[in-house]
Design goal:
This protein is mostly beta strands and 554 residues long. It has a domain at 274-554. It has nine helices and 39 strands. A hairpin with a 2-residue loop joins strand 38 and strand 39 (511-512).
Length: 554
């Protein structure tokens, strides 16, 4: 177990389990980055590690000594122009003047970001390696690329700029903890959404001169990986996307806990493909556009979203931006025929929203309970100065709860009203929204006592005067006996009984909702445990899992 020093430009020494590779002080730069971009020449990452093998008890550590940082070595404008040019070539070949259809190559730098020449730090075929306390920065597609790696931990590492902070291609079992990424502060308020992201609609173009496709990335972009992806205590802000997991070809457990997502212009957490085995808990979503995007699944099950906080201070985009509304959950349309392989639970979250809970779609076998949700009104005091909200905020406070009631509630135009067929139920919630509950009940939502939600609001301490910890979303007064005795299904075995003395919302005293009974749930997701398969009888009896011993007193 040796500590081995490495200077910039020197060959990688042989490393054994337990060794520490210590990057000595200096500036580790990518070679010929701009020449590669503009003339097609290949370049090498600032640091490339291949075939490094540690063990579960003695991993190999890669650390920096003192003021060490890895630099992408490119200025903003060349990086922007190069990214736009790459995206434009793909658009011109596959989209311009063509018949639109699914499966066309996406106009962006995503493919290049998964290659060695597109990475600042590259690990290939490595196992049981810990990347610890590095500083990666620069205008580069991918700051850290993990290619076919297993049991890798990236921790206490700072990322700046780039299109992707971490790209994962293949491999299994990656943990990212206590990391920080800031992409660019322009993204939230200055740059229009469609100048960054390609939506694939009629008449859409990629403009080399005015677009910003260099921002069309994410904190974590994981494709074709198996096992589990754990993201813990990370701080992601002023970025286009947060955690982006692709599950179309592989199955991956996802755990996102105690993270902070601030001013994420598109999706804080997005799963493309089936959504099975996901745990998202005790996170803070500040100024979100769309916190959770799961609109492409065919199958969903064993999804747990609890103890999270969300609030807003400013709306996204310039005033003329068409994409400044967002929604909390983006769901698949009914015509995609989504099905459930297990239950989904959204419970004990505290949310201050300005956009819809969901604009459209269907979520089979969803049970939502114990959530505290407030929609501020334009006449409420706003901000630390206790003033009226500015017009740009006040004008965007009237979003419909489940999408426009003027549209058909079939799950394609707005959130489905057929809750019995899809086994959807909401109960023991306090929601301050002008449609809740009477207007939504009249519109056909929650027939058969499936929408037991109380209007009037949760009574947050100061919903429009936020602080960093989110304690302004504590309740102004305790609400005894507001939640019925409840248990939820676990993916491995049996049920998990929740505490009887719960309050609505995420805050339970001075801590976010995370009772001891849920520790087994988190342990399952972070281990290699197998998900049980429910029989048809068990699925049919799912509604009876909610044990009502006494009526709640709101």
């Amino acid at each position: 177990m040796a500590e081995i020093a490495l200077f910039p430009g020197k060959p990688i020494p042989k490393l054994s389990p337990g060794d520490t590779l210590l990057l000595k002080q200096g500036r580790w730069r990518v070679s010929d980055a701009d020449r590669w971009r503009h003339h097609g020449r290949r370049c090498k990452p600032a640091l490339a590690l291949s075939g490094i093998r540690g063990t579960a008890t003695d991993p190999v550590y890669v650390r920096g000594e003192g003021n060490v940082f890895l630099d992408g070595g490119s200025e903003f404008e060349p990086w922007r122009t190069w990214s736009n040019t790459v995206a434009h070539k793909i658009w011109r070949k596959h989209w311009a003047g063509k018949v639109l259809k699914e499966g066309l190559p996406y106009p962006g730098v995503h493919k290049i970001a998964g290659t060695p020449e597109g990475a600042l730090l590259h690990l290939r075929d490595c196992e049981h390696v810990v990347i610890d306390e590095l500083d990666l920065r620069g205008a580069y597609p991918t700051l850290c690329l993990l290619e076919n790696c297993r049991n890798v931990v990236v921790r206490k590492t700072t990322f700046s700029a780039g299109t992707f902070a971490i790209s994962i291609r293949g491999g299994s079992d990656v943990t990212v903890e206590k990391c920080r990424w800031r992409q660019d502060g322009w993204l939230w308020r200055v740059i229009a959404w469609n100048r960054v992201h390609f939506e694939g609609i009629e008449g859409e173009i990629v403009d080399v001169a005015s677009d910003f496709r260099n921002y069309d990335g994410s904190f974590i972009n994981a494709e074709d990986m198996t096992g589990k992806l754990i993201v813990h205590r990370c701080d992601v802000g002023d970025a286009f996307n947060g955690v982006h997991l692709f599950t179309k070809n592989t199955k991956t457990k996802l755990v996102v806990t105690k993270c902070r997502f601030t001013r994420i212009r598109d999706n804080a957490i997005e799963i493309e493909g089936d959504v099975e085995n996901a745990l998202i808990a005790n996170n803070r979503f500040v100024d979100p556009y769309r916190p959770i995007s799961i609109d492409t699944f065919q199958r969903i099950g064993w999804f747990y979203f609890y103890g999270n906080l969300s609030w807003f201070v400013t709306p996204p985009g310039p005033k003329t931006d068409q994409n400044n509304g967002g929604e909390f959950f983006k769901l698949p349309k009914l015509k995609k025929n989504p099905t459930a392989t297990g239950p989904s639970y959204v419970f004990h979250n505290s949310l201050v929203l300005r956009s819809s809970w969901a604009k459209r779609g269907v979520w089979p076998r969803l049970t939502a309970f114990g959530n505290a949700i407030d929609y501020p009104r334009p006449d409420e005091p706003w901000g630390p100065g206790v003033k009226e909200p500015p017009p740009e905020i006040a004008d965007r406070m009237a979003a419909p709860y489940f999408g426009s009631l003027a549209l058909t509630g079939d799950g394609n135009q707005r959130f489905t009203t057929d809750w019995a067929a899809h086994d959807i139920r909401f109960f023991d919630e306090a929601v301050d929204h002008h449609e809740v509950p009477q207007v939504l009940l009249a519109a056909g939502y929650g027939a058969g006592n499936r929408f037991e939600v109380h209007g009037g609001g949760p009574g947050f301490r100061a919903p429009t005067i936020p602080n960093r910890r989110g304690t302004h979303l504590k309740l102004d007064a305790a609400r005894p006996n507001c939640c019925r005795k409840t248990s939820i299904q676990a993916p491995d075995r049996g049920d998990l009984k929740l505490p009887d003395d719960r309050n609505i919302g995420a805050w339970q005293g001075d801590k976010l909702f995370n009772p001891p009974s849920l520790r087994r749930l988190k342990s399952f997701f972070e281990s290699g445990g197998a998900t049980r398969t429910l029989s048809a009888e068990q699925i049919a009896d799912a509604a009876r899992r909610i044990e009502v011993l006494e009526p709640p007193g709101m």
